[in-house]
Amino acid sequence: MLQTTTSNSSLYTAIFLIIIVLIVTRRAGNASTTRKFSLRQIFLRPVVYVAIASVASIGLPTYEMASIILLALAGAYAAISLSIGIEISYIGGKLHYKRSRSIVIFWGIAIVLRYLLAVYLPMYAIALISTNLLLGATTGLLVGEAIKIYILYKKLKAKDTKLT
Question: Is residue 5 predicted with pLDDT exceeding 60?
Answer without folding.
Answer: no
